[in-house]
């Protein structure tokens, strides 16, 4: 018995050590970026003195500020439009005959399964073929095109869970199809819509490959600006930028987490 | 219901416009010359880059394999932590994903450089410095680091579903630790492994920035080759389209093989 | 809750459409998005951006004319060409080099400039007008020029460096950087072999490709603008690069030195041009004229380190730079230099495809990689099928 206990303690220690090592691997690079964002010299490996100059420079860098604004515009509009298109389409697909449904779902999953670079290139060729000027319009369309499948795949399971007879019942009670859509279906599937929306916003904000192929000189997004920064004379501003993004992500995650826990607590009280 | 069914009509046209037509254009480019005549030379020319394709698959498979090895025990440990701590642990794992992958890759550049932090540390500890940057090893490290959370996520969600009672039952029936692992845990986590492997392998095999930033330009992968033909140093969209086509076919083939696998296992579970 | 969600999404939509019309205009002045703008596509580190106490040229232009400059950068002629060609992207001012200008002229890519809108063109040295690539001088206004040479770290390279063959020195293995573009790389290999940059013989080009392939195992990385970082932080010992950037690097790291190869090298002129699809040609010409202003040209020359073709700006340069043998080499050095000329489509395609071959050649191609890879795949296949068969057996038993 004692041997087993010892064994268990050892196992626990090893697993703890493993988790720590894993997190070290995940966080060490970020830690390096953050530390060197406060470094006075431009060197990436020698620490000289604490400074906030790089933050100051970053906040006065018009190129970066503009790209942040562009990213926000593109991500919010693309994900909002994609959510609307995706939700409506998911409902439509759900009520299709089985064979059609399967075919359409396969087509929908293509942009997700395809490597991003192929999707990006194919959309670029399409826009060139249509003689569209590369800019905001093409960028937003491209983002919608890869966001819609994510929305559909988030909404679909909720539709599958929904009892189809609810719709029939509503119809029998004199509800028209618009009413069915808004009063019966939407309330059932809204968690899927929300998660689809959040997912597409996250993907849009972070997307590099699709934007790389489909943006014009007026629509540089933040990831593209970062790419340009890593290719030129590298300035520690890039570290400062990473730190700021990290802090924002941390705050968002903490807030979301807190809310969920609160919700659970409230649910428990009820 | 018929009216609701009509809602799919706009979507059908949308899919045609932004999924089917672009892919058709890629195919069209792949089989034509710049003057618009039919040719199969583009696709047969891809054969010249066979070594790059093999190298991409090789590096991506190594990265996927190592990710799986690293992520599997970690996911198991995390999945056994219940409640709030477990949730927070998941958040901690996901947090780095919120940084843009260019920044994450850049961070590795600063670490692995010849005069970088890793070598400084090694010299400080009286080891000889290593030459990692601009080699394939650096590319693999970049892939693992960038896509590791994609492996952890599906694994954890599958492992959370394993009831401890199943394992206890096996223990009670006299199974050794090893046979519990091979006969219960591995089969039950197979769907997670499959989706994790695809989620890591697909972006890894088609990446084109990681290889350039960490591989020093001399370790090109398929993604770089495609980028070079469209927006890079040797403009030839017809060849680029042909390579894209080959890459797409390759990936879809892998995916369908993988899916087959998953489906059968699911069936096995149901029986 | 649903209503809330719908409201959020709808309001986002409305807000965004509103953004595009009015909110943006208000926010514009904050972050520099203006109704009036031109798109400029230039080499990286090629225009004064307001650091080191110099003028921010684009900001000055905006102040002077009210036209905002959307500035983006490329790192090689070929990259710029591909970007313009493969997608329908509209730039108003671009800065190709000589041979690329003649290629673009022959492909009807450039718009003829209206020199009445560019009165400052008179400031350009007479010998920079009507150059080979644009004999009638209809399409281009010279911006900066320079030569290709070798930049090296005096502490890391012991031998004296004379010509490009230093880049094939085995002692410097893995300490060499090389150009990440076909024309410059082939040019260096051709000069090493003593062939003209503009050779039309396929055999010569094949030989040059062979040289580059031999060099690959010695090269640490293929770079363009990344070179600043790598040379300054002593990641590498030696690299070929353009004179102006080399001067900037030498200023930041005094251990670096620059050599112009004794047997001649490439001399290039980068000129401002307007693509044919630009819709704002007049503003573009206004911008080009602004760049020819002596004070602005001086700032750009000082920032980038390159040599200016602008007579008045040259006169204003500090003596130290005017006499600098790197920025303004003596005539007998210049006599040995050669410009790139756009040969023909066939030669160009040959160079491009050979260049990719060099890039994908694997220096440490281990004979075991393929067999091991296939073996691993086979083992994986066999083991998975065994596992599957076993599972099926177990299931059938149940």
Textual characterization of the structure:
The complex is a heterotrimer of chains A (270), B (271) and C (398). Chain A is mostly helical. Chain A has two domains: 2-53, no CATH class; 62-240, MetI-like (MetI-like fold, Orthogonal Bundle). Chain A has eleven helices and no strands. Chain B has one domain (47-270): Orthogonal Bundle (MetI-like fold). In chain C, helix 5 packs across helix 6 (202-216), helix 5 crosses helix 14 (345-360) and helix 6 packs parallel to helix 14 (345-360). Chains in contact: A-B, A-C, B-C. At the B-C interface, helix 4, helix 12 and helix 13 of B face helix 3, strand 6, helix 14 and helix 15 of C.
Considering the chains and any ligands shown, give keywords for the structure.
heterotrimer; A: 270 residues; mainly alpha; MetI-like fold; B: 271 residues; globular
The DSSP helix count of chain A reads 11
Briefly note the structural class of the backbone of chain A.
mainly alpha
Mean pLDDT of chain C: 88
Largest sheet of chain A: none
Full CATH superfamily name of the largest domain in chain C: Periplasmic binding protein-like II
Q: Please give the largest β-sheet of chain C.
A: 4 strands, antiparallel
Most extensive interface between two protein chains, with residue counts: A-B, 78 and 79 residues
Please give the oligomerization state of what you see: heterotrimer
Measured between the Cα atoms of the first and last residue of chain A, the distance is 44 Å
Count of spatially separate domains of chain A? 2
Low-pLDDT segments of chain C: 25-32
CATH evolutionary superfamily of the largest domain in chain A: MetI-like
Taken from the alpha-carbon principal axes, the silhouette of chain C is globular
Count every beta strand of chain C, where a strand is a DSSP E run of 2 or more residues. Answer: 9
Strand content of chain C: 5-15%
Q: Compute the number of strand runs of chain A.
A: 0
Task: Please give the CATH class of the largest domain in chain A.
Answer: Mainly Alpha
User: Total domains of chain C, how many?
Assistant: 3
Topology-level CATH name of the largest domain in chain A: MetI-like fold
The appropriate CATH architecture of the largest domain in chain C is 3-Layer(aba) Sandwich
> What is the CA-atom radius of gyration of chain C, in angstroms?
26 Å
């Amino acid at each position: 018995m004692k041997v087993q206990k010892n064994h268990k303690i050892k196992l626990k220690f090893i697993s703890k050590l493993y988790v720590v090592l894993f997190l070290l691997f995940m966080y060490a690079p970020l830690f390096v970026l953050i530390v060197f964002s406060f470094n006075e010299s431009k060197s990436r490996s020698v620490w000289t003195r604490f400074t906030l100059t790089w933050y100051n420079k970053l906040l006065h860098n018009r190129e970066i500020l503009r790209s942040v604004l562009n990213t926000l515009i593109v991500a919010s509009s693309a994900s909002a439009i994609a959510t609307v298109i995706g939700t409506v389409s998911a409902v439509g697909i759900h009520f299709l005959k089985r064979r059609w449904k399967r075919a359409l779902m396969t087509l929908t999953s293509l942009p997700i399964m395809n490597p991003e670079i192929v999707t990006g290139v194919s959309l670029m060729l399409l826009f060139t073929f249509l003689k569209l000027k590369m800019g905001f319009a093409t960028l937003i369309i491209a983002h919608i095109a890869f966001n819609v499948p994510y929305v559909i795949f988030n909404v679909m399971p909720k539709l599958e869970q929904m009892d189809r007879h609810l719709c029939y019942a509503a119809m029998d009670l004199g509800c028209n199809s618009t009413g069915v859509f808004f009063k019966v279906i939407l309330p059932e599937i809204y968690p899927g819509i929300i998660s689809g929306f959040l997912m597409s916003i996250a993907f849009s904000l972070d997307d590099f490959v699709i934007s790389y192929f489909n943006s014009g000189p007026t629509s540089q997004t933040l990831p593209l600006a970062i790419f340009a920064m890593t290719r030129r004379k590298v300035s520690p501003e890039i570290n400062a930028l990473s730190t700021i993004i990290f802090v924002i992500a941390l705050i968002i995650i903490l807030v979301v987490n807190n809310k969920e826990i609160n919700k659970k607590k409230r649910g428990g009280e009820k | 219901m018929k009216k609701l069914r009509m809602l799919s009509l706009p979507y059908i046209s949308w899919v045609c416009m932004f999924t089917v037509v672009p892919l058709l254009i890629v195919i069209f480019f792949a089989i034509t010359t710049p003057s618009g005549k039919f040719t199969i030379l583009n696709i047969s020319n891809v054969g010249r880059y066979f070594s790059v394709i093999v190298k991409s698959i090789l590096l991506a498979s190594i990265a996927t394999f190592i990710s799986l090895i690293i992520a599997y025990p970690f996911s198991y440990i995390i999945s056994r932590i219940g409640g709030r701590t477990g949730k927070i642990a998941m958040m901690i794992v996901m947090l780095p994903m919120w940084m843009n992958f260019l920044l994450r890759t850049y961070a590795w550049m600063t670490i692995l450089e010849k005069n970088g932090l890793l070598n400084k540390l090694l010299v400080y500890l009286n080891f000889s410095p290593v030459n990692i940057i601009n080699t394939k090893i650096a590319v693999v490290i970049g892939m693992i680091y960038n896509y590791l959370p994609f492996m952890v996520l599906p694994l954890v969600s599958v492992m959370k579903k394993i009831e401890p009672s199943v394992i206890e039952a096996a223990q009670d029936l006299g199974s050794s630790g090893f046979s519990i692992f091979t006969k219960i845990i591995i089969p039950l986590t197979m769907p997670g492994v499959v989706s994790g492997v695809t989620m890591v392998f697909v972006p890894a095999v088609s990446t084109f920035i990681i290889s350039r930033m960490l591989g020093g330009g001399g370790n090109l992968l398929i993604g770089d080759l495609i980028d070079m033909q469209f927006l890079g140093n040797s403009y030839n969209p017809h060849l680029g389209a042909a390579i894209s086509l080959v890459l797409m076919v390759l990936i879809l083939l892998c995916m369908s093989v993988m899916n087959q696998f998953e489906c059968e296992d699911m069936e096995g579970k149901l029986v | 809750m649903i209503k809330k969600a719908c409201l959020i999404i709808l309001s986002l939509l409305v807000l965004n459409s509103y953004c595009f019309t009015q909110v943006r205009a208000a926010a514009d002045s904050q972050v520099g998005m203006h109704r009036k703008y031109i798109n400029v596509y230039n080499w990286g580190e090629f225009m004064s951006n307001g650091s080191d106490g110099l003028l921010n040229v684009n900001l000055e232009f905006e102040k002077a004319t009210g036209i905002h400059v959307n500035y983006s950068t490329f790192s090689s002629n070929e990259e710029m060409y591909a970007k313009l060609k493969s997608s329908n992207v509209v730039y108003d001012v671009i800065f190709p080099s000589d041979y690329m200008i003649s290629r673009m002229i022959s492909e009807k890519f450039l718009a003829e400039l209206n020199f009445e809108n560019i009165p400052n063109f008179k400031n350009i040295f007479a010998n920079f007008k009507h150059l080979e690539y644009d004999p009638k001088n209809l399409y281009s206004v010279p911006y900066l020029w320079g030569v290709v040479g070798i930049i090296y770290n005096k502490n890391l390279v012991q031998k004296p460096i004379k010509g490009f063959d230093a880049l094939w020195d085995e002692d410097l293995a893995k300490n060499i950087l090389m150009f990440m573009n076909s024309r410059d790389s082939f040019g260096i290999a051709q000069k090493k072999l003593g062939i003209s940059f503009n050779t039309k013989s396929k055999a010569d080009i094949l030989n040059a490709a062979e040289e580059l392939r031999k060099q690959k195992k010695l090269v640490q990385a293929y770079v363009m603008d990344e070179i600043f970082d790598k040379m300054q932080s002593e990641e590498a010992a030696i690299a070929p690069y353009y004179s102006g950037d080399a001067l900037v690097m030498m200023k930041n790291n005094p251990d670096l030195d620059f050599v112009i190869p004794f047997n001649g090298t490439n001399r290039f002129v980068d000129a401002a041009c307007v693509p044919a699809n630009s819709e704002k040609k007049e503003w573009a010409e206004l911008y080009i004229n602004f760049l020819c202003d002596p004070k602005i040209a001086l700032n750009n020359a000082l920032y980038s380190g390159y040599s200016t073709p602008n007579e008045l700006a040259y006169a204003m340069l500090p003596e130290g730079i005017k006499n600098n043998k790197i920025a303004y080499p003596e005539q007998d050095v210049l006599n040995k230099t050669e410009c790139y000329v756009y040969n023909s489509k066939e030669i160009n395609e040959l160079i491009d495809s050979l260049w990719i071959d060099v890039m994908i050649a694997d220096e440490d191609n281990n004979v075991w990689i393929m067999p091991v890879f296939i073996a691993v795949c086979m083992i994986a296949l066999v083991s998975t099928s065994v596992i599957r068969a076993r599972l099926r057996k177990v299931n059938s038993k149940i």
